[in-house]
Design brief:
alpha+beta; four-stranded mixed beta sheet; 19% strand; globular
């Protein structure tokens, strides 16, 4: 039997002793834990733990360059505020670097999916950590003014979230990216000519892309949604870390 206690996503995970051939499906089925909602279940492969860190380092550097460029050309209070907003993006990426265990792989981790798709069922020896989050009470917005968590409301739509922001923070783009709690992300139209109405769910994230037409800005616009999709889909999460059992002394 697999037995272990739980921990917050940003706290050290409980170590779980497993054999080489134990799978994630086995862990979910044997462990005495509550049934996790599929979109809020997660795991991260060991190889991706370091790969994600490298991408975050590059993202941080690109945001430093872009924020400095905005500050240099700021000629109004609005332009200066936009530069400060980009600094907020940078600070959040720095926090991501400080909390690598709040990352995951972009893969279904819930037991129902793993039972139905055995080829997608990883062994725990390949996994850095796994777990699940409680559905949060927020949606997160990345926009020209910075980053903020907005209280989630039932029947909340993409339009509701964007209308709560100052127009200057959203009116330079015809599209935004919606990142779902399950790790999918979609480019959605938000202008009058291409408006797409989408119902939001707790723990999702919205990215209003950078308006600059530079290689750095285009790379950030491409990379940031992917990074956000790999963050844990909540604030209160339980995380478990597999380890090999100790060798017998006999």
């Amino acid at each position: 039997m697999l037995t272990y206690s739980t921990s917050h996503a940003e706290s050290p995970a409980t170590m779980l002793s497993v054999s080489d051939n134990t799978t994630l499906r086995d862990a979910w089925l044997r462990a005495d834990i509550p049934s996790a909602i599929p979109a809020y279940s997660f795991y991260q492969r060991r190889v991706e733990h370091e790969e994600t860190k490298a991408t975050l380092e590059q993202l941080k550097e690109e945001l430093v360059v872009l924020s400095e460029e905005r500050i240099e050309r700021a000629t109004s209070a609005e332009a200066s505020q936009s530069a400060l907003g980009l600094r907020a993006w940078q600070q959040h990426v720095e926090y991501f670097l400080e909390t690598p265990d709040a990352s995951r792989s972009l893969a279904r981790a819930d037991v129902a999916y793993l039972v139905a798709h055995p080829r997608d069922n990883p062994t725990l020896s390949d996994i850095h950590h796994f777990g699940y989050c409680e559905p949060p009470d927020w949606v997160e917005l990345w926009h020209a003014g910075g980053v903020e968590k907005m209280a989630y409301q039932p029947d909340m739509t993409l339009g509701d979230a964007l209308e709560a922001l100052p127009a200057r923070d959203t009116n330079l783009s015809d599209y935004v990216t919606w990142v779902s709690p399950g790790g999918q992300y979609f480019r959605l139209g938000v202008a009058a000519w291409n408006h797409q109405q989408v119902d939001l769910v707790p723990g999702g994230r919205i990215v209003v892309p950078l308006s600059e037409s530079t290689p750095s800005a285009e790379w950030v616009n491409y990379t940031l949604p992917h990074i956000l999709a790999k963050r844990l889909p909540g604030s209160e999460c339980k995380r478990f870390m597999p380890t090999k059992p100790l060798a017998s002394s006999s």
